[in-house]
């Protein structure tokens, strides 16, 4: 098992490093961005859903920093190595599905909370929202069961620590409030 609290880049993958470099450039060129979406392919694919972006983020300048196949430790590395625009007000974090067969649910939750802690240390005024993982597979499977466990543990941990939790399949749940 890999530690999810140790940042790991995927620099050996040229496409990954190119995406990271593009994101670094966007941090400097989009100085009025107020929302950052960061995570894996689920976030990356939001770019294909203009109606969702328009409905939920209308009036906001949104940056999409989703990278396919990223794991928690890769997202952590990017958070630690990017200088995000000072105009950011919100960060929406969604990752962990790519860790599901490599780490147990508690480790995944700890990894997500660790990213939250690092974001809040570096960007004190930014509100961080952590979203649940989306179901995998069409039928009941080991992955689906593990994701359900992650989401239940994550929801409890967010509530306990007053972190805003977004339950993607059934709406908003506000942590601790």
Highlighted features:
single chain, 177 residues, alpha/beta, six-stranded mixed sheet, 6 helices, 6 strands, 15% strand, disordered C terminus
Set down the secondary structure blueprint.
Layout: H1 14-29, E1 35-39, H2 41-44, H3 50-57, E2 62-66, H4 72-81, E3 90-94, H5 105-122, E4 127-131, H6 142-160, E5 164-167, E6 171-173
Parallel strand pairs: 1-2, 1-3, 3-4, 4-5
Antiparallel strand pairs: 5-6
Helix pairs in contact: 4-5, 5-6
Structure described in brief:
By secondary structure, the protein is an alpha/beta fold.
Notes on the structure:
The protein is an alpha/beta fold and 177 residues long. Helices cover 42% and strands 15% of the residues. It contains six helices and six strands, in the order H-E-H-H-E-H-E-H-E-H-E-E. Strands 2-1-3-4-5-6 form a six-stranded mixed β-sheet. Strand 4 (127-131), helix 6 (142-160) and strand 5 form a beta-alpha-beta unit. The longest helix is centred in the C-terminal third of the chain and has 19 residues, at 142-160. The protein is globular, with a radius of gyration of 15 Å. It starts with 13 loop residues before the first helix and ends with a strand. Mean pLDDT is 91; it is low at 171-177.
Give the N-to-C terminal Cα separation: 34 Å
Sketch the topology as an H/E string, one letter per element. HEHHEHEHEHEE
Q: In which order are the strands of the major sheet placed?
A: 2-1-3-4-5-6
**Beta-strand residue fraction:** 15-25%
Mean pLDDT: 91
The helix content is: 40-55%
Radius of gyration: 15 Å
Largest sheet: 6 strands, mixed
Structural class: alpha/beta
The dominant shape is globular
Count helical runs: 6
Record field, number of beta strands: 6
Given as residue ranges, the uncertain stretches (5+ residues, pLDDT < 50) are 171-177
- Oligomeric composition of the shown chains: single chain
């Amino acid at each position: 098992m890999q530690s999810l609290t140790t940042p790991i880049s995927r620099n050996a993958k040229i496409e990954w490093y190119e995406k990271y470099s593009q994101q670094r450039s966007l941090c400097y060129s989009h100085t009025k961005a107020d929302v950052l979406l960061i995570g894996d392919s689920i976030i990356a694919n939001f770019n294909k859903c203009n109606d969702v972006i328009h409905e939920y983020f209308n009036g906001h300048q949104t940056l999409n920093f989703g990278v396919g196949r990223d794991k928690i430790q890769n997202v952590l590395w990017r958070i630690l190595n990017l200088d995000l625009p000072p105009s950011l007000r919100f960060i929406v974090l969604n990752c962990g599905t790519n860790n599901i067969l490599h780490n147990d649910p508690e480790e995944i939750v700890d990894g997500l909370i660790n990213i939250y802690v690092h974001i809040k240390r570096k960007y004190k005024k930014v509100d961080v929202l952590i979203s649940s993982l989306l179901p995998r597979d069409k039928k009941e499977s080991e992955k689906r069961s593990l994701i359900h466990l992650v989401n239940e543990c994550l929801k409890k941990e967010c509530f306990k620590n007053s972190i805003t939790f977004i339950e993607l399949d059934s709406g908003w749940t506000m942590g601790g409030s």
